[in-house]
Write a structure and sequence with these properties.
Two copies of one chain form a homodimer.
Chain A: H1 24-36, E1 42-48, E2 59-60, H2 64-72, H3 78-86, H4 98-106, E3 112-116, E4 121-122, E5 129-134, H5 135-140, H6 142-166, E6 171-174, H7 182-196, E7 200-201, H8 204-210, H9 220-224, H10 229-239, E8 245-247, H11 253-269, E9 276-279, H12 284-297, E10 304-308, H13 313-321, E11 328-331, H14 333-336, E12 347-354, E13 361-363, E14 380-386, E15 392-399, E16 409-411, E17 419-421, E18 427-430, E19 432-437, E20 440-441, H15 448-460, H16 464-467, E21 477-480, H17 481-494
Parallel strand pairs in A: 6-7, 6-11, 8-9, 9-10, 10-11, 15-21
Antiparallel strand pairs in A: 1-5, 1-12, 2-4, 3-5, 3-19, 12-13, 14-15, 14-18, 16-17, 16-21, 19-20
Helix pairs in contact in A: 2-6, 3-4, 6-7, 6-13, 7-15, 10-11, 11-12
Chain lengths: ~500, ~500
């Protein structure tokens, strides 16, 4: 059945429990917390990345629908527990005591989860997800949340960049399944690519599961299965008189275009129009110009020219500069694997912990030799200040557990001399929204179609200088000044003063 | 339950039908063949890659267990058919006639499938899978076979390279799930990494589903959840007295090592030994040497040093050259995404088709401007000639549907001046083995453990010059001379003679 099943993207395909979709250390830590009686100590974690992908100026947030589905179905089945019970340490003893397995059997998810809506443009250091709840549970979520959000955010961002290069009116079709990183590497890539700006996918399962428009032409093997190319095209037109796109490069591309035109003429006599031709190799700039000229001369100015062959945003830009006559871009490998940067380095860091006497929060920090890798303490919210036209001006990270001063100032965590005073009465919105409260879903998530349209508006609301590919302008994201000072003090407190 | 479920790797996790895990064009072509009455014309396709990944000299074949599982369960469910029936062309008419959907409903898989065993070292142009059967069916398999084989072969090869760099005695742990490309991008990467040479994974689901040893330490957040680092280590040791690996870089790495040693001393008093420490940032060469010295001085020469942080085969090689004292390598992103080349460009090409009168085979070819991308016609087998010690000497691709001459000669398809005469009585083995006959499985596949051991033997059987990372020696793979001549004639026949 067609379904825009953005509310259950996992359950449709993955029937087995996915509660063990995690790193072992989440379970060994859980065991340790349980042994120490720390399992219910309230904790806050943030999921964020430290640098936008592709040396770009932004990312498009994605994956939340998967996260919500995973969290809603999270529980340990008897199979899961039997497996965990079978694990042995190096001395042959069980790794986990039976009491802990019983604890996992009873475990109910009770965390609060806030998240930035899918399709929102986001920047370095901004919590995409904030988890607040019992330490053991909140820790346990780390790996799955990262897996689901890192990849889909990466691909949605790649698709937005490809849309940027192709322009608003060209068609972008995602063709990547055969080179994807596994089944779900294909399936969730198709979802994220559509979310980020693609118009359709070749992936039929993604069409079925997510309601994404499916598109396709034919392969070289189709042409090779007939006496000659013209016969092959004619047979395809027979099956799809109004939806034929002929792949013309099996033997010789421009000869192929001539064969396509011959068949298109006969189609027209029957009242049908050739939808398009596809170029899949060779010099696409030259061949598309020649093909366009041949089609136009023959009276087929509306026949589309689809191009594919290891394309990405940079090649599309280059082809357009060369006057390529391509109006539909088939993007495979480079999109679904995010070829030039196949992973987003999102992290999940502890930022606050209730004191042992439950009285108050203690804010925590992870140091690093590199300041950029030092975490941000607090229970964070992201406030986005916008112009009167709704254009984002600057984002402020602040600690919701501390009072905000009247005069707001933000400080760039990478360069503390870059400061901005926030105008009084600036319009703003808070990006993190409640998704779960005490383990219960508290919101309806939008459909994939709604997310896609929102994402387009989001990307377009950014200044072009932030969207450009080469050395983009850095969008201002700062720590609210009191948070910055608090963090600096905490770093100095934790970092030993070394001899020079 | 633990299970070395290499025979049903998909069914365990993906309960929904995966028959639509394909590109739409496979179905539009199927429809076209059905309309033309060509659905049962016998065809032969080969799946192969054109260049080993990572600019290396070989690949380790993987993914067949998934392929076999997918093929065994292939059928169109009512949901699948309802979805396909819902698709509309541009003029609003159904894309597929009801008669075709009925055909798909009745469709039974009846192909012959031959494949190279998982774990075998393979080279450019060698068919990893050969499918022979009705044109419609054989075509329909393309996308899923490519998705499953491309990715797992890529990752198994990456793991073999990392094993090459780490040497035979170091431990290699795959830690990549959080940066993997989706759930299955993580899960099948864990399988392929283990197959190719890793010793374990952090991915608990992969442990449960495939019986891979699972390993893990703790996160920075564990340390941050305690008053100080020493208290955190002591608490972890409490939970895992014989299996503790302390992450020492939350605040200051060498201070962390000192804290680990302090706790290790108390552990020893209780009769336990600290298993290891983990370095996750900073200068791993320097820090590991300093840590080793501190541990040794303190009487802990057997405490292992685990290192992680964006490692790959090149960084491991470099660290070893710098005298790094690391004996366990935690490899994440760079392994599970094959970061420096995140896709293997495997293709699936039609190579033979029965003539319309069913009398004989017609061999087919896909041309390209680049000779390397021109396909190889025939019903191919790969014969591997081996030395008396079993070391591979050369591979010969030949057409099983043509007689073999008495004197065998192989010709490099990239450079026809590179020819080799095969010695009479050379030992050899044929790499493609029957997996399905008339749609029925005809073999037991080995367990993952068996495949892993076989893969290690396979890689070690290669000359080191072929295994090296930089400019490896090209292993000789040639076309049997009569196949070469036949192919050349076919190219000349199909390629139009252009004016100069």
């Amino acid at each position: 059945m067609t379904s825009a099943s953005s509310t259950r993207p996992l359950a449709d395909v993955y029937a087995s429990s996915l509660s063990l979709l995690t790193d072992l250390y989440q379970l060994t830590m859980a065991y340790g917390y349980w042994k120490q009686g720390l399992q219910d100590r309230e904790a806050v974690f943030h999921l964020y990345f430290r640098r936008p992908p592709f040396e770009g100026g932004y990312a498009v947030c994605a994956g939340l629908a998967y996260v919500a589905d995973w969290l809603e179905t999270l529980h340990f089945t008897e199979d899961d527990l039997a497996y965990l019970g079978s694990l042995r340490g190096s001395k042959g003893a069980v790794l986990f005591e039976p009491g802990f397995l019983e604890y996992l059997r009873q475990l109910k998810f009770t965390c609060d989860v806030d998240a930035i809506a899918e399709g929102t443009v986001v920047f370095a250091n901004e919590p995409l997800i904030r988890v607040k709840g019992p330490l053991l549970q909140a820790q346990l979520l780390e790996t799955a949340l990262l897996t689901l959000v890192n990849f889909q955010t990466l691909i949605a961002t790649k698709a937005a960049r490809i849309r940027e290069a192709a322009g608003p009116s060209d068609q972008i079709l995602e063709f990547g399944l055969r080179r994807a990183q596994g089944i779900d590497g294909g399936l969730s890539a198709s979802r994220a690519a559509y979310l980020g700006g693609a118009d359709g996918t070749s992936n039929v399962l993604a069409g079925q599961k997510f309601g994404i428009p499916v598109r396709g032409t034919h392969a070289h093997s189709w042409v090779m299965s007939f006496e000659d190319e013209e016969a092959a095209f004619a047979a395809y037109a027979d099956a799809f008189p109004d939806d034929s796109v002929f792949l013309v490069d099996t033997y010789d591309t421009l000869e192929g275009v001539r064969h396509a035109i011959a068949v298109a003429r006969r189609m027209r006599e029957q009242g049908h129009e050739l939808a398009g031709i596809r170029l899949d190799s060779g010099d696409l700039a030259y061949l598309s110009r020649e093909a366009r000229a041949l089609l136009n001369e023959a009276g087929f100015p509306n026949t589309r020219i689809v191009a594919s062959n290891d394309l990405d945003e940079n090649l599309i830009t280059s082809l357009k500069l060369q006057g390529a006559q391509i109006d539909t871009w088939g993007i495979g490998t480079k999109l679904v694997t995010a070829y030039d940067q196949p992973a987003l380095g999102g992290v999940y860091k502890l930022a606050a912990l209730r004191k042992a006497d439950d009285s108050d929060w203690e804010f925590t920090i992870k140091l690093s030799e590199q300041l950029a890798k030092t975490s941000i303490p607090g229970i964070l919210q992201v406030r986005r200040f916008v112009s009167e036209k709704g254009q984002p001006r600057a984002d402020m990270l602040y600690n919701t557990a501390a009072p905000l001063p009247d005069k707001l100032e933000i400080i760039d965590p990478q360069d503390i001399t870059r400061r901005r005073a926030v105008r009084a009465n600036s319009d703003y919105r808070e990006l993190l929204e409640p998704i779960f409260r005490a383990g219960q879903r508290v919101c309806e998530l939008p459909t994939l179609e709604e997310i896609r349209q929102y994402a387009q508006r989001e990307v377009h609301s950014l200044d072009p200088s932030i969207r450009r590919f080469l050395n983009p302008h850095t969008y201002p994201v700062g720590l609210e000044a009191s948070l910055h000072h608090f963090r600096t003090d905490l770093i100095l407190e934790k970092r030993p003063l070394r001899p020079a």
